[in-house]
Each structure stands twice: as C-alpha cells, then as structure tokens.
Amino acid sequence: MTKARVGDQEFVELFRNLGPTEMANRLAISQTKVHARRRRLEQKLGITIEGPNKVRSEQRIPQPQGEHRARLEVRSGHVLVASDAHYWPGEETLLHRALVRFTKELRGSLRALILNGDVMDFPAISRHAAIGWESRPKVQDEIEWAQERLDELQAAAGRIPLIWTLGNHDARFESRLANLAPEYAKVHGVHLKDHFPLWRPCWSVWLNDDTVCKHRFRGGIHAVHNNLLWSGKNILTGHLHSARVVSLTDYNGTRWGVDTGCLAEPSARAFTDYTEDNPLNWRSAFAVLTFVEGRLLQPELVLKFDEKRVQFRGELITP
C-alpha cells in the first residue's frame, strides 16, 4: 500500500473526522507517526486538534516529567506484564508475537498492559566501552523498530491503559542527552516518551495498593525472594531475565514475587558480545496476572517452549 501524502489543513480535518486509528489505516502509517505530526501541527498552528470522540490521547499520558508512581484499581480481570524486550532492528521474537496474541485474545478482560522496563537496548549510547568493532544499531533505527512493535501491541490492546516503567537501558536515551546537552531540557524529542505518546511513563505501577510492578529492586540470585521480603508487597520485576514465580507466607498471609523473564531471546545480538557466550540462566517469558474480587491469584508465566511455540497452562501455543 502506498502512503498517502496530505497537507497540513487536510491532516487536521482528517484527524478531527476520523480519529488516529482510522487515519493511520487510511494513510498507511503508524498511529505513533499520526500523533507525532498532530503534536507538531498543534505547536505550529497554535490550535488543539481533537478526534471525533473529543478525547485527546494526551489524557492518558502524564505531564512531560512522567510519574513517580502510576496507580490502577483492578477488581477483576487480567493484567499482562512483560519486560526486557531489548528491541533490536530486524529481530522480532517469538515472545513478542505471543504477547501480541495474548493481548488480543484477553482484550475483553484485560485491564492493563505493562512493559516493565528495558523496552530499548541503546548500545550505541551505553556508558560501557565497545568490545572490538561490533556493529551497534543507530538510536533512530532502534526507536523506529520499537515504534513498529509497540504499534502492534497498541492495535491489539484497544483502549486499555498502556504503561511503560523505566528500565536502566531505557534511561540511557535521556541520560546521555542530559549529561552532554543539559540546555535542551524539556525540548520536545529529548524525552523518550515523546517518541511513544500512547504509553504512560513511570517508575512503578501499583495495582490495588498491594501489587507493585517496577523494572528492578534487589539484585543477585535470590533477588525475587528478597524483593518480596523487603517490599512487603506482591512484586513483579524484570532486569534479571530469569522468569520465575516465588511465594512468601508470613503472619500477613501469602504474597507473590515474579521475575517476568525477557521478551528478547537470551541469544539475541543485544547480549551476545558482553555475555561472552557463557551459559545464561535466562528464559524468554512474560507474566499473566489474574485478579478476582480485587485479589491477585497466583501469577502465571507464558514461557518459550521451542522456536515456534510457547507454553501456558499445560498447552503449547503457536503465536
């Protein structure tokens, strides 16, 4: 399909009449690019451009500095939590396809989709020295590839909340700019969220005040147990890529700790050099949370089974 070219005024009228989803389909471009151009035109023309339902997408997004803590009340239904995609241009993983499928199939009962940090890798702006002369993707290429993958998740999710907790790799984008060019603070485009306008950025997500999702907390082989011990909450983290569920019972009852694994392949190019071809206690996975009467049931993992299938609740599924 050939991408349609439209002038500024025609773009404004199309947005107001069709809304971002139908407009993206009509012009054969992503919703991310539709929203990016709408923001530019609002600044250029000094107007507000709203869709036909009169609800601007920015109402789902916090102020430019993001949020310290996002909160959601979930009485019943599901929440999907996926971490460490480390999206690398040209690589689309089995677990990403599985996440798109689960998002689409659970949409009727899905209350939120949470990307729990390290959506991006950004090796070209890492503080770590290069190893030899390995090829590193350009920042722009990484962003565009991630926009395409997140567009797929957005289309599958419909209108549910989309939340992105900051990971240490994600933070490289703004940290590099803040250290080298602090004068550009708050200029549009220097914040990672500017390139992903439908995703709500924060440090942590609190579900019903007793379940916390954040990219990382404690480290080491016993991190998931120590997260439970020191947080006093159900807690889901990524960062360590280990994909496991741990329980802890005390006088306050039972709570659950989850390492959600990684959407990336452990053998992905993002990892191959610095891991030196060592054996890795990592697994490709994401978490499915189920809430009943406001309480979290035992968390479940969707795990990679082989190159074409994932396993969930005793079944093999091809995304």
CATH architect. name of the largest domain: 4-Layer Sandwich
Give the termini separation.
25 Å
Q: What is the H-and-E element order?
A: HHHEEHEHEHEEHEEEHEEEEE
Q: Tell me the helix content.
A: 25-40%
Could you tell me the CATH topology label of the largest domain. Purple Acid Phosphatase, chain A, domain 2
Report the uncertain regions: 54-65
Report mean pLDDT, rounded to a whole number: 89
Give the CATH superfamily of the largest domain. Metallo-dependent phosphatases
Tell me the strand percentage band. Answer: 15-25%
Number of strands: 14
Q: If you had to describe this structure to a student in words, what would you say it looks like?
A:
By secondary structure, this protein is α/β, with parallel strands linked by helices. It folds into 2 domains: 1-60; 62-317, Purple Acid Phosphatase, chain A, domain 2 (4-Layer Sandwich). Helix content is 27%, strand content 23%. The chain is built from 8 helices and 14 strands. Strands 1, 2, 3, 4, 5, 6, 7, 8, 9, 10, 11, 12, 13 and 14 form a 14-stranded mixed β-sheet that branches. Strand 2 (77-82), helix 4 and strand 3 (110-115) form a beta-alpha-beta unit. Helix 4 runs parallel beside helix 5 (139-157). It is globular and about 60 Å long.
